[in-house]
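User: My advisor asked me to double-check a structure prediction for DUF559 domain-containing protein before group meeting. I don't want to rely on an old file, so could you generate it fresh from this sequence?
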Amino acid sequence: MDRTAYARRLRQKQTLAEKTLWALVRNRRLSGFKFMRQIAIDRYFADFICEAGKLIVELDGAAHEGREDYDERRTVTLEQLGYVVLRFNNERVLADPGGTADEILSALRSARP
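Assistant: Sure, here is a fresh prediction for DUF559 domain-containing protein from the sequence you gave:
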């Protein structure tokens, strides 16, 4: 699999929740923290990542139903690589984008020494 092409395809087929969150965090809009999206880490693609804060934000929608075990293994692997993983339901992001951004910012600030 061409990982670059796959990541590009994921970015082009964003869900509404992903578009909403990306609008909040792109271009260092969240207190200057730089986020990237659909970045390959190990054998996974992180929805959103802030390398400076070692934070990965995953959005879970209908595609994640019934995949809880897979998602848990994925989270464990990413945490073993030194990342904090935050998971949000798509509906939460759409209903409360500001609250979602606040929670992400709180996690980033608490990770700082």
